[in-house]
Write a structure and sequence with these properties.
By secondary structure, the chain is of the alpha/beta class. Helix content is 40%, strand content 22%. It is built from ten helices and twelve strands.
Length: 315
């Protein structure tokens, strides 16, 4: 095989292209990478000029769409980045050093609380490492694991398929969240029977919503859904404003919604299946020292006794 010595694009430019291609937006790619929008636009324009192809169709005020060749390029660009990261893995194995970049996906409801402390602590312990973070729903995370587009996911034990190994770390039982003025706010606990007649503000994420529905269906009840959102903070703010209650498993340290109003956590009466936080990786695939080190870090940092970014287990 003959390699060209005059290639005039960089791995960084490929990373910017990948971020824009995956998000369909210069703005979202900029937020994901913490890089200015002009830098990403310039990198994409340079790639298009260097390769002599159009990678995106630009839609005014509506983001980007990959062209057919852009979709092919996205697959190849990911492969190039993975191969480049593999060089660090090989070097780490040879020198007993933990180095390189790890692509970590996190359940979108967990990411704001867990990932900042978890990722920062790992990179402080191993200065030669970088964590590339992705925050999405369960279906997305499992799909990207199977495609080997992320190395590991911090997620829940919801419908883990064959071929993926899930290692449990901590349990999160369900509880009720209401406004501080709600009649339930002063109760020691609330039952599903009491909740069934109340308006539910549903956190509407794939698999998560089925988990919440199952709590009611198992008790022979049906929730009264008043509103739904895929964004946790939207749900909390609606609850804080008295629209209704919600069910949750995560325990933010703050009881203040984004608009400054307060919410109150109340125990859910009865014994219910908790959501279990853990790490998900591809089974039967050799793990690098980097991935092994990150899994060990997760086991050391996440447990029933302490979950980064979350309050104590007692409601």
């Amino acid at each position: 095989m003959v390699y060209r010595s005059d290639m005039r694009y960089t791995l960084r430019q490929l990373e910017y292209f990948i971020a824009a291609g995956e998000s369909g937006s210069i703005t979202q790619a900029s937020e994901r990478l913490s890089i200015s929008q002009p830098s990403i636009s310039t990198a994409i324009s340079h790639l298009e000029q260097e390769l002599g192809v159009q990678l995106f169709v630009r839609h005014h005020a509506q983001g980007l769409s990959l062209t057919p060749v852009g979709r092919q390029m996205l697959v190849e660009a990911r492969r190039v980045i993975q191969m480049a990261e593999g060089l660090y893995a090989v070097a780490s194995e040879a020198t007993d050093q933990i180095r390189g970049q790890l692509s970590v996906g996190s359940m979108v409801t967990l990411a704001p609380m867990i990932m900042p402390e978890l990722a920062h602590g790992f990179m402080e312990t191993y200065p030669g490492t970088q964590i590339r973070q992705f925050e999405e729903n369960q279906e997305w995370l499992l799909d990207r694991l199977r495609r080997v587009e992320i190395d590991i996911a911090i997620t829940y034990d919801l419908q883990i398929p064959d071929g993926i190994t899930f290692v449990p770390l901590a349990s999160l039982p369900p509880h009720v969240v209401v406004s501080d003025s709600h009649p339930f706010a002063s109760l020691p606990e609330v039952s599903l029977t009491q909740l069934a007649a109340e308006p539910l503000i549903l956190l509407d994420l794939p698999l998560s919503r089925e988990y919440f529905f199952a709590l009611f269906f198992k008790a022979g009840l049906e929730p009264r859904i008043s509103a739904r959102s895929a964004h946790q903070e939207v749900v909390r703010t609606m609850v804080a404003n008295g629209y209704g209650y919600t069910l949750a498993n995560v325990r933010p340290r703050s009881d203040v919604a984004l608009d400054g109003r307060r919410v109150v956590r109340v125990p859910l009466a009865g014994a219910h299946r908790p959501m279990v936080i853990g790490t998900a990786t591809l089974a039967n695939v050799p793990k690098s020292r980097l991935l092994d080190a990150f899994e060990a870090h997760c086991r050391a940092c996440v447990s029933d006794a302490h979950i980064p970014g979350m309050g104590e287990s007692g409601v």
